Amino acid sequence: EGAGYANVYGSEITERKRAETELRIAASEIRQTKENLQRTLESITDGFFAVDKKWRITYINREARRLLDIAEDVQAGDSIQESVAYLRDTPLMRQLKLAFNSGETVRFETYFEESDSWLDVKAYPSGEGLSVYFHDVSDRKHSEQMQAAQLQQIREYSDQLEKQRHELRQANAKLEEANSRLEALATRDGLTGIFNHRAFQDHLERAATSCARSNRPLSLLMIDVDEFKKYNDAFGHPMGDEVLIGVAKILTEHAREVDIVARYGGEEFAVLLPDADETAALTVAERIRSAIEDREWPLRPVTISLGAATTCGTCANAKDLIGEADKALYASKANGRNRTSHFRTIQKEAA
Predict the structure, then answer these.
(1) 164 and 133, same structural domain?
(2) 193-204 residue pLDDT tens
(3) Residues 30 and 116 placed together within one structural domain of the fold
(4) Which residues are catalytic?
(5) Is the residue at 192 inside a domain?
(6) 31 located within any domain
(7) Could you identify which of 44, 85, 240, 327 might form a hypothetical disulfide with 232, taking C-beta atoms 3.0 to 4.6 angstroms apart as the criterion?
C-alpha cells in the first residue's frame, strides 16, 4: 500500500510540475506577444490608444501622445476624460462617444486645436472598450483649404468680372442711347421730328450718286405752306408751330415708305422720292396736297404749294435737282398756290 501511495503522489507532483511549466511557457508567450504588439504600436506612424468601458486608458503610443499633446505622466489605468481634461468637449471625444454608445465603427476627420492639426480618426468599439487609430492629415487639409480658397477667389474674380461686364453692357447701352439722342439732335428737326436740312442734304447726295450709278429715276418735291407769315401774324407763332407739326405728320403719312421727308427751313419742306419718275412724283404730290387741303384745321384752312423735279442716270445732280424743284415751286405759287407744278411742264410751257 505504501508503494502505491508513493506512486500516486509522485504522479500528481509530475502533473503539477508539467502544468506549472506549461503555465510559465504560456505566460512567457503572452509577455512576448504583448512586447511584440507594443513594439508594433510604437513603431507605426499612426497614433493609437485604447480605453476600457470606463474610459480608462489601457494603452497609448508615443504618436498618440504627440498628436493629442498628452503628457508622459498620464498612464494606463488613468481616465482619459479626467486626466486629459481638454479632450472632454472636443469634436474628437463627441465622435468617440458616438462610436462607443452605438457599438459601430466610425471614421471621421476632425480639427484638434491643441496641436493645430487635422486628424483622420478610425474608432473600433469592442466588448472590452474602444480602440482608436488616427494620423495627421494637416498637410492634405491645408492643401484642400488652399485649393478651396483659390477656387473661392476665382469665383469672386469671376463674379466681379461678370459684374464689370454687366456694368459695361449697361454703359454701352447708355452710350448707344446717348448716341441715338445725339444723332436725333443732329439729324432731326426739333419741332416736327422729321429729318432736318442737314440730314436731307446727306440723303439727297447719296440718292443722286445711286441714281447716276443705277440709271434709275430720282424725284424731289419742294413744298411751301401757303400764306404762312399771315397765319403767324394772325394767330401767333405757337399756333403756327402747330400747323408745321400737322403738315409734317401728313407728309410722313402720305409719302411712300422709302421716301425721305424733311423740313427744309421755316415753312418749307422737302420730300425725296428714290426710284420715282415724273408720274409717280406727281401722284405722291397730289396725294399730299389733297390730304392737307381736306384736313379740318382749327383756325382756318391750310394749303400748300409744291414744285416737283425728276432726274435720271448720269445727269443726276443734287444741286440742279433742288434748283429745278424750286423753280417749279415758284411757278405753283405764282399761279395761285395750292397746286403742284413739275419742272418739265413749265419748261415746255416756256418753250
Answers:
(1) no
(2) 999 999 999 999
(3) yes
(4) 267
(5) no
(6) yes
(7) 240
Per-residue pLDDT of the chain (351 residues; tens, 9 = 90+): 555 556 655 666 777 777 667 666 665 555 555 444 444 555 467 999 999 999 999 999 999 998 888 999 999 999 998 888 888 888 889 999 999 999 999 999 998 887 788 999 999 999 899 999 999 998 888 888 888 888 888 888 888 889 988 888 988 888 888 887 777 778 999 999 999 999 999 999 999 999 888 889 999 999 999 999 999 999 999 999 999 999 999 999 999 999 999 999 999 999 999 999 999 999 999 999 999 999 999 999 999 999 999 998 766 789 999 999 999 999 999 999 999 999 999 988 876
Residues 277 and 157 in one domain: no
Q: Are residues 229 and 241 in the same domain?
A: yes
Q: How many Cβ atoms sit within 10 Å of the Cβ of residue 5? A: 9
Whether residue 127 sits in one domain with residue 230: no
Residue 222 structural domain: 197-350
Query: Count of CB atoms within 10 A of residue 122's CB?
Result: 15
Residues 214 and 273 in one domain: yes
The tally of CA atoms less than 13 A away on the side-chain side of residue 306 is 26
Rounded CA-CA distance 139/147 in Å is 12
Question: Strand locations in the chain, DSSP E?
Answer: 47-52, 57-60, 106-112, 117-125, 129-136, 217-225, 260-265, 268-274, 304-312, 340-342
Does residue 49 lie within any of the structural domains?
yes
| CA distance to 75, 216, 330, per residue, from 320 (Å) | 116, 17, 15
Check if the beta carbon of residue 269 is closer than 8 Å to that of residue 251. yes
Alpha helices in 255-334 (DSSP H): 278-294, 318-334
**Helix/strand/coil for 1:** coil
CATH number at residue 119: 3.30.450.20
CA distance linking residue 242 with residue 239, whole number of Å: 5
Q: Cα(290)–Cα(339) distance, rounded to whole angstroms?
A: 9
Among residues 146, 165, 187, the one where a domain terminates is 187
Q: Within this chain, do residues 204 and 344 fall inside the same structural domain, yes or no?
A: yes
pTM, to two decimals: 0.55
Same domain, yes or no: 76 and 171:
no
- Rounded CA gap, 96 and 168, in Å? 56
